[in-house]
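Model it.
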Amino acid sequence: MRRALYIVLIVIFATLVIAFKFQNMDSATISLFSMSMTLPLSLLVFLIYVLGMLTGGFMLSLLRSWARGAARRP
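Modeled.
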């Protein structure tokens, strides 16, 4: 029973992701210094999300290691 529920939830989530992709096909231009890039809006949102996960995970591990280092010193 639980397996069927998980499959239904995965199908619903995948449907929402695909609907988001097709509803956000407009292009957005981003620029940094003298560089600029035009990407579909859905791809840009996905890339920003992944970048946020990577940097957030890095910052969390860095803060944990600093806290451990500070706790060890007398």
